[in-house]
Amino acid sequence: MTIDDVAARVPGSILAVDDNRENLRLLVRVLSAQGYVVRPALDGATALVSAQAEPPDLMLLDVHMPGIDGYEVCRRLRGDPRTAAIPVIFVSAASELFNKVQAFEAGGTDYLTKPFESAEILARVEANIRVHRLKARFEAQNLSLQAEVAERERAQKALQDLNQRLEALVGERTKDLIQSNEELHREIEERVLIDKALRESEARFRRLHETMRDAFISVDMEGHIQDANSAFQEMLRYDLEELQRLTYVDLTPPRWHGSEARVVEEQILARGYSDIYEKEYVRRDGTVFPVELRSFLLADDGGVPIGIWAIVRDVTERKRAEAQIESALREKEVLLKEIHHRVKNNLQVVSGLLDLQAREIADPAARALLGDSSARVRAMALVHELLYGAADLSSVAFDAFIARLLDQATIQNHRPEIVIGRDLAPAALGIELAVPSGLIVNELVSNAFKHAFPGGRGGRVDVVLECRAHGAMRISVSDDGVGLPPNFDIARQKSMGWRLIVNLIEQIDGEILLLSGERTAFVLVFREEPRAGRGRSQALDAATGATKPWLCPGLPQTAAVPTPNP
């Protein structure tokens, strides 16, 4: 059985790691259909335990995961003798920040980008498992050869001992002759073994070179093509003899010559390899097509550069898919704008109906209740109005939203003796947080208008929006009115407004604090991510590339939320 037969006889086992269940299901389905045994894992810690318990033939590892990210998982695998040899293919969405150099420095052997192409997944997985098994086979053969050499040395030692006893009998002259013969015989055997091992090694690597699915090319320092595998020849439509009469510059359109020369000078010659970069090639028939390649420097035993080799991939299909995805995203943005526009219009109609109904009701309490409901609906309509006009459909300018809410509250309450102060830091907030948070602010401001300044008393209501350390967001609503009753407890209030505030706080997994002092002050603090609507938020993140439910410009975005400072 040949080494290729050993590498191809069984598909093997794969550990797929991704915190996105939909991606995991796709990987399991595609790979299982080809006979691979796929073990899924949703996070880095689980993946490490699984890999150490039963090392797979290969790992598909997502870069961005909660807890331990993909880079750290790969570094820990390489630091454990049980898992150090496992090939790791990093997986990253095209829209996510992915540091390829960091990935390869961490020990990665390859990478895939989302969305997945089934053929690319299978090709990358097959190639990496094949190389992994060939490498393991080579190492096993080398160990076997070392053991055989050691055994031969032990046999030779025994023979030397025997010869020494015989030489003692026949004299010094015979001893010298036997020793000379033994040394000559051992040198001949060693040379035969070394020559055989070199021939076998050359044959194995030649088979690997010719069966690689990726295209391979090597050139000398003047750029003349020295070697290319069948995949490269097929890609360019030249045979090897024709390629060896050309340079890599001859195959490259002129507009890429300058940038590739800089890659050679600043990366390959400077550090011995290049980042993965893109360019174009020209086929024999004149067709120009995009490729992705990574190049490495060849040097002699003295460290003098003698050539460059590269792995080349045709990315025509990937470019076509990226163009289709970009077109689909543009269509989706148009659809989302239309949805926001229609939702805004519908909410405004509902608000208008509530106002009309309120005018027909004589009961002041019922009329006030309908007026409050109308104000809440208008607050929700404001979010969709802002999103309709925004460039980023995944979040709303929360400071602008609060400013509009305060303008509405001033008009609705008709209390010119009450001044609304505002200090609103620029901040963006996802719709799943913007609507409930805006309603909370609306309720707090409305309560201040209604209850803090009885009998026509004047005063001031201040609303402050802050982006604090560690990416936390804090909103405070305070007034200099008559204050709250003693032992006031929000959770025990029975009015619809206070119950709505309590429910909305739970919905966004936030915290509201009542601060004591000369002014009545309520402070709302956001946590990193609300429990409610988490699935919806993640779906929106996947579509838009967002990573946080809000963003405070200029501040580090971390998971820690400090205790509010009054």
Structure description:
Helix content is 52%, strand content 19%. It has helices at residues 3-8, 21-32, 44-53, 70-78, 100-105, 118-170, 172-211, 230-236, 240-243, 257-271, 316-359, 364-388, 398-413, 431-452, 496-508, 534-544, and strands at 13-17, 37-41, 58-62, 88-93, 110-114, 215-220, 225-228, 277-282, 288-299, 305-314, 395-397, 418-424, 428-430, 459-467, 473-479, 511-515, 520-525, 550-551. Strands 2-1-3-4-5 form a five-stranded parallel beta sheet, with helices on both faces. The chain has a five-stranded antiparallel beta sheet with strand order 7-6-10-9-8. A five-stranded mixed beta sheet has the order 12-14-15-17-16, with helices on one face. Helix 5 (100-105) links the parallel strand 4 and strand 5 (110-114). Helix 3 (44-53) packs parallel to helix 4 and helix 6 (118-170) runs antiparallel to helix 7. It is elongated. The protein starts with a helix and ends in a 15-residue tail after the last strand. Residues 528-551 and 554-566 have low confidence and may be disordered.
